């Protein structure tokens, strides 16, 4: 399967630039909106600091009506509401269909037995009904307004009643008390773009059921922040570094760029590198920002660009810079003599359907998809392929150098959750009478609470049994 995938990739590669020119421009714009300003897109609706504004903006009275809520909670005995658990899977559609998990050979798909280390692949599986529901509720103070789907009036709650089930084993739910015990005197950093921010909020909310974190640091834009759990002397940071490499970004708070991103493919972003050795655990990721219009540098010389028709520069394509930047980052990591644990998280797909972010695309599903039901977009395939290849190269080196580098491959389980995004409910009660503002739909970030909690179930499993 790996071979097929490579074949597919090489075949397509030649046509990349042409084929994705327009699509990528659009994606670039979309992610400019989402990734840079997810909490500022509409300042009237969303302040970046929910701690300060949540109460005044969303009076307690405006809460989800209890009765309706209960009506929608699937409970035992009503299992028929759920799609039946799959016992077979759609046949592969052939060479043209690249594998979802690049690390599992196709043959292994059918008779995927435990690999030699005796562990099953926890990234391959299905979402199955679960009655336990959300790990926390909408009053968790670290949820930012655009992800607080319940408070924003999302009417369905079925998306909260699913659990990720690896196909050949089981993973327990995240245990916040146990996690905090294990993390005494330790520190975590989640490094990347706004999906990392989304992830850190999920983690903080899960932990807040045991102890409320205290924010001890924020940069001036509240993009990089650190929280401390006093009883455990445990700290969690989110580090804003959307490219991981050094980038000059010329965007205002509304995501409007006055110039192309200047991306140095051979310099690491100091934001994370300067503190690198201070953290015990890191979850590092990147992705969609590479789709933006950018000028690429190496050794301070211009190499070319991506989507810069007004400049007399060579179009190199985002795949060029993504591979080069990731390779550079990985090379640093594997030789870093780092003593902690690094998770490289794959980028996760968006779920705009029936259009893109700006052409009426939405994500109105209310239940997970089954394997094969959701199309993997070309752009996501390309990013993913590069991630897996660069990781695999690095993993071999890392073990040689004694660096504990692990793949946190959340692509597939995320792909199957088109129901997990805010959609229009990134705004507060978007369909309220009298509101005629144009609605921005978010099919990229995840509702909190929501499927993103599974990411922490998996992290916990990898820490305990990894
Ligand atoms: C939400 O959770 C908190 C803490 O677990 C609890 O005190 C509160 O009553 C819950 N609120 C709702 C609306 O369920
Ligand atoms: C945490 O650090 C304190 C102070 O250095 C020490 O007394 C304690 O034993 C440490 N706890 C753990 C679990 O390492
Ligand atoms: C907290 O943990 C740090 C290591 O992360 C350690 O240096 C420090 O002594 C600890 N403080 C206390 C009060 O345990
Ligand atoms: C574009 O760049 C090429 C090579 O650097 C140069 O030969 C050409 O004259 C430039 N064209 C314009 C319009 O500047
Ligand atoms: C859901 O979105 C699709 C487009 O992706 C649209 O065709 C359909 O009508 C929508 N359904 C509802 C109930 O809004």
UniProtKB/TrEMBL annotation:
The chain crosses the membrane at residues 16-35. GO terms for cellular component: Golgi apparatus; membrane. Belongs to the PC-esterase family. TBL subfamily. Residues 66-99 are annotated as: Disordered. Residues 171-462 form the Trichome birefringence-like C-terminal domain. This is Uncharacterized protein. It holds the Pfam family PC-Esterase. It is found in: Membrane. It comes from Malus domestica. Keywords: Membrane, Signal-anchor, Transmembrane, Transmembrane helix. GO terms for molecular function: O-acetyltransferase activity. Residues 119-170 form the Trichome birefringence-like N-terminal domain. The keyword Electron transport does not apply. Residues 81-95 have a biased composition (Basic and acidic residues). It is a single-pass membrane protein. InterPro entries: TBL (IPR029962), TBL_C (IPR026057), TBL_N (IPR025846). It comes from the Eukaryota.
């Amino acid at each position: 399967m790996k071979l097929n995938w490579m074949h597919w990739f090489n075949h397509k590669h030649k046509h990349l630039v042409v084929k994705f020119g327009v699509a990528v421009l659009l994606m670039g714009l979309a992610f400019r909106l989402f990734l840079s300003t997810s909490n500022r897109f509409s300042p009237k609706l969303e302040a970046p600091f929910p701690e300060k504004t949540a109460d005044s903006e969303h009076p307690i009275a405006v809460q989800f009506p209890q009765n309706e809520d209960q009506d929608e909670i699937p409970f035992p005995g009503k299992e028929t509401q759920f799609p039946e658990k799959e016992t077979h899977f759609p046949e592969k559609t052939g060479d043209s269909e690249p594998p979802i998990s690049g690390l599992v050979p196709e043959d292994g798909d059918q008779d995927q037995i435990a690999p030699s280390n005796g562990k099953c692949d926890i990234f391959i599986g299905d979402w199955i009904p679960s009655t336990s529901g959300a790990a926390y509720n909408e009053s968790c103070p670290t949820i930012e307004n655009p992800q607080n789907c319940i408070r924003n009036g999302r009417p369905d709650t079925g998306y909260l009643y699913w659990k990720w089930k690896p196909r050949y084993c089981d993973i327990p739910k995240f245990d916040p008390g146990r996690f905090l015990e294990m993390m005494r005197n330790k520190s975590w950093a989640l490094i990347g773009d706004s999906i990392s921010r989304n992830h850190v909020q999920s983690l903080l909310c899960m932990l807040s059921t045991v102890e409320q974190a205290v924010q001890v640091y924020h940069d001036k834009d509240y993009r990089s922040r650190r929280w401390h759990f006093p009883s455990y002397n445990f700290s969690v940071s989110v580090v804003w570094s959307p490219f991981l490499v050094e980038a000059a970004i010329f965007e205002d708070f509304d995501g409007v760029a006055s110039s192309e991103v200047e991306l140095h493919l051979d310099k690491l972003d100091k934001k994370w590198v300067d503190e690198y050795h201070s953290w015990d655990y890191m979850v590092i990721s990147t992705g969609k920002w590479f789709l933006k219009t950018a000028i690429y540098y190496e050794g301070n010389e211009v190499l070319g660009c991506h989507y810069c028709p007004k400049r007399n520069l060579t179009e190199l394509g985002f795949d060029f810079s993504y591979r080069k930047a990731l390779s550079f980052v990985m090379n640093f990591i594997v030789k870093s003599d780092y003593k902690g644990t690094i998770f490289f998280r794959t980028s996760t797909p968006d779920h705009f359907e029936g259009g893109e972010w700006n052409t009426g695309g939405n994500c109105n599903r209310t239940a997970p998809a089954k394997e094969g039901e959701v199309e993997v977009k070309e752009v996501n395939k390309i990013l993913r392929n590069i991630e897996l290849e660069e990781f695999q190269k690095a993993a071999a080196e890392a073990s040689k150098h004694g660096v504990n580098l692990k793949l946190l491959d959340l692509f597939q389980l995320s792909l199957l959750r088109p129901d997990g995004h805010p959609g229009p409910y990134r705004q507060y009660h978007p369909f309220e009478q009298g509101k005629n503002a144009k609605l921005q739909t978010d099919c990229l970030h995840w509702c909190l609470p929501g499927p993103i909690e599974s990411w922490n179930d998996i992290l916990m499993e990898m820490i305990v049994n990894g």
